């Protein structure tokens, strides 16, 4: 059969010659390899003190965005929940009342918006589905916790901090 | 023997005992740190600056762990095992000359606990006894893995003791004495035995690795095959004793190798040093040189451990019986021929 990748390598197994059987030259070369590593810089990142930088397209914890006037962008259309392959997102929509125009951008908003971080697979499909550019996975790693119920993040944890006036 | 001599000997015993325990303790730390450096890691660095208190924490942990004696184990022998292991590891240091005669205020101190005329034989006896700790512990555990580990330790030690003894015989043919003090004195300045017995030293160090159960010959505690080997059933400080004994053995065997082959406390320029610094400082420098050499050997033990994978059991026996013993005998013949005709 023709090789698809051309990466096939023929392995020869010749009988060992005297120096290979003597084992000592191999030990010496092995020792020199480890000695080279002895003086190399450690690759360890001491985690709590230093953190590895995330890549630009790292997908971490979700955040619900506000627009330039500090109003919540989300209109509770439910496209993110629909697109979510893990069914991690639930929401309850509500109508904007008079006097709340500075809080919500459109007439409809999400009164409850919950993401179950244990179900979420951080695929980023909600981000892609959102027509209002309201949700982005631009946060840090979701922190550990003790109880399952504490992994259901509501708006208190998800919505961006309000703009400083 | 005067009372003063006895007191000095007693102090010397205590000092050497304390040094070998501290060295063994910090060998565990060095082992982990050196392993880390060989693997591009940092190693323990949380307990104290650079993790320097790690051995103390490990020791405290060992003492606080639950003591378990399995129901079907032979309780008495189960305790005797690790005690014997650490005892035999500690008494080996008695005949090693750590330095020249030290003169303090007109009093000459012999930096050796016991200058017996059969020092090499004594070392051999102690090394042979060392395997009993492992064997008794493994057998008393009443566990098949422990027993297999113990059997491996026993057969490995017996096989490698032969070639170790044969490699020493070639050295003794040149030195003409069994006293370690005299062997050390013969290697004055740079007349180290390694120059006269390179092959003998190679055989000896391979056997030393096997006798101390260090990688690549650590089959008695081969985790992949035997869970924990002979100390599978051990917990708490009894396990600590076994692990500790290994490090003390490493220290003592390094000291023996340095004394027999690498000149002990001798170094080029020691006469000049004696003439210029006097009989108090110069021997102490010799002791420092001795310890520097010993530490280099301990480092080498660790270096090899983190480089070479473990032997298979049949390879181990092949190497011992088919390679090392013929080589050792050839070395004896070679030494005899050369020392007779040259």
Cα-to-Cα separation, first versus last residue of chain B: 43 Å
| CATH topology category name of the domain at 63-158 in chain A | Alpha-Beta Plaits
Number of E-type strands of chain B:
2
**Helix percentage of chain B:** 55-70%
* Number of structural units classed as domains of chain B: 1
- Biggest chain-to-chain interface with counts: A-B, 14 and 14 residues
Instruction: Please give the oligomerization state of what you see.
Output: heterodimer
Q: Give the helix/strand class of chain B.
A: mainly alpha
As a percent range, the share of strand residues of chain A is 5-15%
Name the strands of the widest sheet of chain B in spatial order: 1-2
- Structural class of the secondary structure composition of chain A? alpha+beta
Instruction: Please report the number of helical segments of chain A.
Output: 5
CA-CA gap between termini of chain A: 71 Å
Mean pLDDT of chain A: 87
Annotation keywords:
heterodimer; A: 165 residues; alpha+beta; Alpha-Beta Plaits; two-stranded antiparallel ribbon; 5 strands; B: 342 residues; mainly alpha; two-stranded antiparallel sheet; 11 helices; 68% helix; globular
